[in-house]
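quick one: zinc ion bound model?
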Amino acid sequence: MSFSASQVSNSHALIPYGWDEGWEAAFAPYAVWDLLPGRVLRVDRGQCDLITPLGTVRADTEFVVPRDPLKVVCTGDWATVDRDGDPRYVRHLLPRRTAFARSTSSKRSEGQILAANVDHAIITVSLAVELDLGRIERFLALAWESGAQPLIVLSKADLVPDPVGLSYLVEDVRTVAPGVQVLPVSSTTGEGLDVLRSLVAGGTSVLLGVSGAGKSTLANTLLGEDVMDVKAARDVDGKGRHTTTTRNLLVLPAGGVLIDTPGLRGVGLWDAETGVGQVFSEIESLAGECRFHDCAHEAEPGCAVTAAVEDGSLAVRRLESYRKLLRENQRIVAKTDARLRSEILKDWKRKGAEGRAAMEAKRGGSGGRGRQSGR
Ligand code: ZN
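yep, here:
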């Protein structure tokens, strides 16, 4: 059965959730089967809630690539799901545009996807306390690594009544955030909120920041009401029962989507070396001028990085922060290396076996095309 015209137009119901031509194209190959497109609103214990053209449905997630923690269904994913059935199953994940992952504190140290297909990472920093630039850099690394565009929101701007003082603080943050918009806002006076609303209207956002940074207040302000009320939704489950569930993906009244998952509040770095490089782009470009390709910027002759520190064009704090984040990242990578190596090995073995099977099918066939591999 194919996806009829009326059902395609029904998928317009998904537009407030971020459905666009790109997702429509990604879903097209599956539309010939009797599947619905849907976006994951929340995940728990092997099941998830998805918004589909038929409304919110609950589905099992077990069919989607098991054992690979980076391919587990997560909030924000676009997926294909059975049109009906009890239970329904999620069948495929559409390729992610971006993904937030973290290292877990568990011994297995597996990556864990916290949110997928995020466009804007709103790093919330409170002006009620002293700025911690190193912490901002850490969140920036995480944001860049995910593929989302970071945006720094300085909350509680009303607590800095002196405009000159405020502009100094904004300037301090700008120096550690090349290529990133820095926006002071106040939920009390309304300062900056219209700009923020229009920035997030065009996509999916997450709020990052330490506790006390003002994320909940900001979420309430963007949603126009109390988040906990909005998150509790009355749904009908597969058996027609009414249930109250918590949603982690919420549509904003002024446009856009906000993902608020518990895990995102305590994020650490997860193999964010690329992200670290983007945060410290000026150090990375200086490093390109060092005499030695593998310069550690310690005491090597012809080191452009230490030269920049000496002539004052690069702050020592910035270099130390860069080193600290790289070290932290290497520790996480080292912990996961053993697991990754064995996964990669398994993958190569499987591909090798598939390749051999395809070659044999080709030889055994009547000069036609070899058997298509399943992937
Ligand atoms: Zn160097």
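The radius of gyration is 24 Å.
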